[in-house]
């Protein structure tokens, strides 16, 4: 290599060194560079962001992952890890000058241990497959994102995934014990322990939800729970969305922690009913689905208590599913709400923000007011128990200006979430989609601390660059914009 | 200031600047320097380590804490934070050249919110005081370290405290939502959120259990739970410690998560019985105390299920407390076990290690074997459900060599905990006491990562220096020693 040659095309030369290096570490069949082969990796579940990586690698062993990382570290090449690609915030979007590291070949269940109530699996194992493997012991893995048939546990850890049952059973971080992680430098770390707690700083929690920016997860030990003896669901109808919101707080204040507590408003109810024929009351302004689980006796007791609270909160109708078939039907309606809304509108924009439960009534009222102002219908379908909102804004991208209005409406909802003490994302992560909203959520002190933590793992910023945590510079620019638009401080709050 | 003067006594000069600075920030009554005033701060609950700080400050506001930290950062003076000083690993031991920052004046309960099931308190609020304040709403704060009458929530966060009920309700990290933290540079950060999860890296979990090495906790928002309708305890006697250990795993595998699951062996039973007259079976080799809580119906169902498992596991006697008075008496025996053992031996050494539950039988067998070899009796009193062992080694410090034998025995127990996949501390933290054992627990990769995380918050190492995470150099030296003693790898493991 001469200096002259380097000067002619340093980029091509670096790419050549990378590919040559990767091919020395992996069989050629596990290194993809043909654009046709790269195409399936160009986006995750949020397909508005698309980018082809330079190369896709499909390692099969931890040693291979270590060698790949070590090579990329040496050559200072960005690396983006990818599980099943079901994420909804663009977190797995490849770097065009980097390696897309797929964990698709890591799909072994290594151990299921009922006496210790835990299982050790590779990161490419599907979420549901863990529960299937534990079923023989009467156990299951609790977090159940709606993509659980497809999404993998490694991705769940990266996004700290939740699901319908996280109100009672917690998020991914509350249901894992130990991780094996490969650092950017190619070092293998074991973090956490097979016990309640490990000494030292809590790197297990730090890694969980870090969106692939601190290390590559190559093994996960999860907690298992005993499958509850019985689950039952209560459906309550309300003639007012605000009353339904108030009922949510009243249930929690009564000391009941439902396994799931979901809310749908009229538009969502009707769309879901037309699609799934779940038996929902079509004329209700809102319904709550409240699932109770536990022992037979416990569930019976809680159903009585929940029915009482719902009635006192002004429910116009309270129905307990008569049998398992009806329980499944109630849930089918809820689970098909998103595609059902998709049928009644050319386009919809799914928001994901979280608020303290006590603010549900006022935030729902505000969204409905904005919906009228913008002339954009909103269907609300969400995890009411944890205050995790999913307003679906219905719009038509072909109508001039509607996409822009929709985006503005969405931004205001997220800003309102932050203003009432909530967050800009409940379970979908920040990724590419919400990186600007992070500037609303955090001040420079917290953002600087995030950058310092990132630098403790990956000082060169090679792991999943450009995601999840904005630069202070970006926020400073956006901050100016926000003031210009007069959106901060928020005048609407005075109206409540 | 001349260079000459600085050269004569730089140390005295720096001290003078510090004191002058502190007195400009705080009223003189909140800055203690008289050795008599410093004495109460020389140690925490582990009184084998004693050291006087240079100065004690007792700030009353967050702004004062920020100003103190900013001053100390400027002058590069070490700072050790202190709650109630009930810690058991020397974590609050002052630096002789530094500031001891007491949070004793931060004792306001700022807000209790039953609808959102949370409370916001200052860090100097006692653990039990939170539950007392929430009682009017039928709620409580779940983690209950045995020092809960005295220990404060700030210290609980710093140590990630547990308690008898953490098997079911989790550690401190699982029961807090939000923290306000002052950094070494004096910046105020808000971390976490009033919702299930916050975007960005999980600094909330990272701060929890960080033993005062990352920042000063100045406000805590905790989760509250509804007080269970009923709690009941089942006492089971066994003629063999190993059988009792096996019963613990069998209960969990049956899908029951007791609110508490405690074990005592013969020596502990007899000492506790002589002291507290709890009605324990004096001739049993081990007893289990299994507490169930929940609704009336649920508790009844679980009691039946637990009794069945205990009988099948070979219990010689299974008794349910006949009334609340007997339930309290059963717990009184357990809670007084440590002082009771203190009465039957001149000295005892309380170990704190955690193991995966499935290894309870073999670890208990090994401890008993070592006890015979060393001629040192051991009383076992511990949180069996989470595998958190507390072997109390009985010895007489006045007998030549017994302290050294006891310490060696203790080290071997902790090493065994690590070898079976557990940890060197269950709930007492690392602090000063276990810093060398961290070298057994972790390899250089994990320790380096801990140091990098520490540097992301406090690059100069001014916060609680010398605690919790050993230098690689220290471990390298100890590693050599261990190999020399032939204790690693562990030959005993082959004998199981």
Structure description:
With 496 residues, chain A is an alpha+beta fold. Chain A has three domains: 3-102, Uridine Diphospho-n-acetylenolpyruvylglucosamine Reductase, domain 2; 109-226, Uridine Diphospho-n-acetylenolpyruvylglucosamine Reductase, domain 3 (2-Layer Sandwich); 230-419, 3-Layer(aba) Sandwich (Vanillyl-alcohol Oxidase, Chain A, domain 3). Chain A is built from 18 helices and 20 strands. Chain A has helices at residues 3-8, 10-25, 35-38, 62-75, 127-134, 153-159, 166-169, 203-207, 241-253, 266-276, 296-312, 324-335, 337-344, 360-374, 402-419, 438-441, 444-457, 472-485, and strands at 31-32, 55-57, 79-82, 99-102, 109-113, 118-121, 139-140, 176-182, 188-192, 216-223, 225-226, 230-238, 260-265, 286-294, 317-320, 347-350, 353-354, 378-382, 388-389, 391-395. In chain A, the strands form five sheets. The first copy, chain A, has a seven-stranded antiparallel beta sheet, with helices on both faces. A five-stranded antiparallel beta sheet of chain A has the order 5-6-10-8-9. In chain A, a hairpin with a 4-residue loop joins strand 5 and strand 6. In chain A, helix 10 crosses helix 13. Chain A is globular. The termini of chain A are far apart. The model of chain A is unreliable at 1-6 and 480-496 (pLDDT under 50).
């Amino acid at each position: 290599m001469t200096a002259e040659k380097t000067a002619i095309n340093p980029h091509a030369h670096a790419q050549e060194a990378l590919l040559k290096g990767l091919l020395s570490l992996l069989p050629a069949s596990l290194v993809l560079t043909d654009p046709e082969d790269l195409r399936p990796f160009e986006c995750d579940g949020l397909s508005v962001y698309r980018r082809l990586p330079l190369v896709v690698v499909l390692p099969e062993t931890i040693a291979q992952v270590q060698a790949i990382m070590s090579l990329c570290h040496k050559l200072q090449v960005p690396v983006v890890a990818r599980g099943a690609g079901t994420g909804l915030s663009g977190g797995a979007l490849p770097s065009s000058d980097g390696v897309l590291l797929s964990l698709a070949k890591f799909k072994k269940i290594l151990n299921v241990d009922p006496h210790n109530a835990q299982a050790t699996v590779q990161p490419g194992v599907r979420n549901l497959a863990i529960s299937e493997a534990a079923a023989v012991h009467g156990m299951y893995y609790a977090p159940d994102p709606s993509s659980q048939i497809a999404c993998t546990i490694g991705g769940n850890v990266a996004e700290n995934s939740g699901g319908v049952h996280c109100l009672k059973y917690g998020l991914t971080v509350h249901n894992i014990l130990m991780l094996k992680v490969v650092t950017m430098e190619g070092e293998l770390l074991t973090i956490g322990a097979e016990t309640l707690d490990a000494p030292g700083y809590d790197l297990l929690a730090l890694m969980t939800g870090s969106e692939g920016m601190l290390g590559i997860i190559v093994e996960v030990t999860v907690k298992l729970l005993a499958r509850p003896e019985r689950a039952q669901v209560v459906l309550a109808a309300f003639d007012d969305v605000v009353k339904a919101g108030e009922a949510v707080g009243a249930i929690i204040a009564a000391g009941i922690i439902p396994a799931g507590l979901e809310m749908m408003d009229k538009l969502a109810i009707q769309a879901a009913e037309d699609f799934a024929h779940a038996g929902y009351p079509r004329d209700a302004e809102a319904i709550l689905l409240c699932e109770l689980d536990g022992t037979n006796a416990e569930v019976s007791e809680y159903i009585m208590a929940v029915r009482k609270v719902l009635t006192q909160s002004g429910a116009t109708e309270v129905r307990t599913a008569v049998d398992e078939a009806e329980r499944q039907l109630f849930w089918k309606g809820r689970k098909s709400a998103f595609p059902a809304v998709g049928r009644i509108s050319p386009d919809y924009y799914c928001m994901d923000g979280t608020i303290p439960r006590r603010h549900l009534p006022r935030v729902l009222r505000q969204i409905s007011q904005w919906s009228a102002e913008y002339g954009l219908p909103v269907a609300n379908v969400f995890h009411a128990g944890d205050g995790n909102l999913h307003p679906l804004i219905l719009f038509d991208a072909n109508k001039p200006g509607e996409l822009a209005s929709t985006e503005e409406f969405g931004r205001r909802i997220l800003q309102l979430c932050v203003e009432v003490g909530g967050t800009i994302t409940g379970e979908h992560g920040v990724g590419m989609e919400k990186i600007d909203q992070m500037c609303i959520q955090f001040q420079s002190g917290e953002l600087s601390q995030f950058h310092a933590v990132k630098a403790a793992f990956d000082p060169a910023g090679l792991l999943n660059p450009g995601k999840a945590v904005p630069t202070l510079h970006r926020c400073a620019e956006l901050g100016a914009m926000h003031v210009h638009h007069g959106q901060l401080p928020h005048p609407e709050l005075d109206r409540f």
